[in-house]
Amino acid sequence: MGLKLISTDFDGTIFAEFENPPIPQSLQNLLGALRRRGALWVINTGRDLGSLLETLARAQLSVQPDALVLVEREIYVRQDAHYLALASWNNACAKDHKELFARVASDLESLVDTLQSRHRATFYADAFSPLCVLAENQAVASAIHLELETYAKTVPKLTVVRNDVYIRFAHAGYNKGLALSEIARRLKIRTSETLAAGDHFNDLPMLDRERAHWLVAPANAIPEVKQRVLSFDGYVSSRPHGEGVAQGIEFFLERVEGAQA
Ligand SMILES: [Mg+2]
User: Fold this and answer.
1) Residue 159 in 3-state DSSP?
2) Which domain holds residue 41?
3) How many domains does the chain divide into?
4) Residue 77 falls within a domain, yes or no?
5) Do 94 and 163 belong to one domain?
């Protein structure tokens, strides 16, 4: 089988909070079948560990992910019933972010003052970024995103990560794509054997042929994601969320198996 590693974003891509079940049974069955054939499944999300595990437990899945990428940058690997931090990667990640954020600390107050005077959004800091934004709507988020990207160009290694109306800072050496490649490298899985699925800006780093050969976007993905996926000959589904991802995986499986037959 050509497909050995499947990296899916969580919210909006496989998980739809108001659907029942929030992760469709068809996708759970497909992931279960692929895992029995030796493929591995990674949830690659902006959520942190507590939030993701709580939501997964409530969703009562018939299949569990083999690894997690959290906050778009930390790697956890499942061992028995637990997810263990990949210490070497996560420690380097924490150290690099600490150093980077120390360099922006003196700019933050005036940056936030300027943004706050012009945009309807909540600005705050959390454990993962000294500047987080919750914008009132997509248009406001786009305007703030643009301004923060202009600022980020003045600070080496600083990037702006946006997911829906949420924005935060991160280090350019860590994102969903680089974390996926690190997992693949450790598992000795090639890019040509990897599939990635996502719906929003923070998924773009993994929706790239350098990170995964097979790319999938559900119908609800933002135009920038659909455009990217199509530009790499990927699959944009006419169905939303997990149904769309299941359709995309099946589409590529048929191609791989057809080519092998
Ligand atoms: Mg998403």
Assistant:
1) strand
2) 5-72+175-260
3) 2
4) no
5) yes
Judge contact between 221 and 198, C-beta under 8 A: yes
149 and 186 co-located in one domain: no
Q: How far apart are CA 254 and CA 196, in angstroms?
A: 17
Cα 10 to ligand 1 centroid, rounded to whole Å: 6
pLDDT at 260: 67
Check whether residue 164 and residue 180 sit in a common domain: no
Ligand 1 centroid to Cα of residue 259, in Å, is: 31
Structural domain includes residue 52: yes
| Strand duo 214-217 + 194-197: pairing | parallel
Output the CA 152–ligand 1 centroid distance in Å.
Answer: 23
What pLDDT does residue 49 have? 96
Average pLDDT of every residue of the chain: 96
- Kindly give the distance from the C-alpha atom of residue 221 to the centroid of ligand 1, in angstroms, as a whole number: 8
pLDDT at residue 81, as a whole number: 87
Q: Do both 181 and 166 map to the same domain?
A: no
**113-149: pLDDT as tens digits:** 999 999 999 999 999 999 999 999 999 999 999 999 9
Which residues, by Cβ under 5 Å, contact ligand 1, an ion? Answer: 9, 11-13, 199-200
CA of 3 from ligand 1 middle (Å) equals 22
